[in-house]
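Below is a complete specimen:
___
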Amino acid sequence: MNDKNKPKLSVIVPVFNADIELFSTCLNSIFASTLKDMEVIVVDDGSTIDYTEIIRTYPNFRFLKIENSGTLHARLYGLSVSSGEYVYFMDADDSISFDYLEAMLTKAQSTNADIVLNDWAFWTHNSKYVCTLDSTINSNFDTHDDALTKFFSSSGAEHSYYVMWNKIFRRELLLKVKDELEKLNLGKMVYAEDVLTSFFAFSLAKTIANTHCGYYFYRLHDSQQVYVDSREKFINQIDSLSQVFSIFEKYLKEIGRFDDFSANLIEWKTLLCSNQLSVARHSHFNDLREHILTAYGFNSAPRKRKNADRPYSKHKLLPKNIDEVEEFLSNLYNLNTDEKIYCKARPYLIARLNKMNQYLDKSFVLSRKRKYSTIIPPREIYPIKLKILHNNFVYKIGTFLFPKGSKIRKLLKSKF
């Protein structure tokens, strides 16, 4: 392909038996993106669900089917057939804001970064919320000379550094990562593969940056790979993470950086071991206690540091009518005008509009003077039960009394 015809971004979506409605929402959010200079590659990892109707809906997307080999290999296959300067990986059951991709690409081009991170939010069955204490969400970094230090900075406490779906990567960087992963001769890997891929990407990256424009909506539902609903899946999670840490340690020793991050690795293992012991206790897998301790190299249950889960203990509830708000913002984005606009909106929406101006270079100018054209966005709706449930004090008390995996916590979630 001629370089002039190559897209700026390749979006790769691995899918394996994803719910049709969720999968359709995912692809529609990509289709609605403001970024048009991109290719979309969907890699069906041997699904038994028939996606024929969805394929017909998006004729410009490439749909490729391979034998079931796990998420990691599906992503790498998509990478091998991609042609964009940058690459973005998205999960088939999630969705993105309309401005998400263009903002990251714009940032990458302006900073020449190898990796660009963006904001994200949880999406439960009845609410959406963002972890405001996550450092990638509440801070800015344009470039970073030592990306690996950034990767280990939170010692496992912030998902932003370890997942694939909130970042775009320079394709040349990912091809080097692919070489490193293929040296490991990994088998079918469906859990912690994103942590491993991100590790190699950060270890090889020269510059990283972040931006704040739109959200990746990460759906929480019972059919997720991270959801512990069987003994077999739980053991797979433990063993996969144990394998990942072994790879971390071996590679860090090879490049002479083990001493730099050994303390972070111990703290990260402590956090995961403690959390998984809690899950085992509340999911009636107490017989796996020794297996968990052995996997992380502990003789007894370690105590994680105070506030280790702090990035996820404070939540800012996003509007329940977020789809309506996104549609309003999208329409405003497509409004071709250089006139000043008075926006009658609450701070959350004003912040989003300012970010659109900052990162997407739109021509409209927001004004606080009423004499200019007035636009009135949808009101943000906060049902009273969600206000109560997501109140910071109530959340802290609830997580203290009812740990993750407990039956009472599951019951409360189902009620709210």
In short: The chain has a mean pLDDT of 87. Residues 258-282 form the longest helix (25 residues).
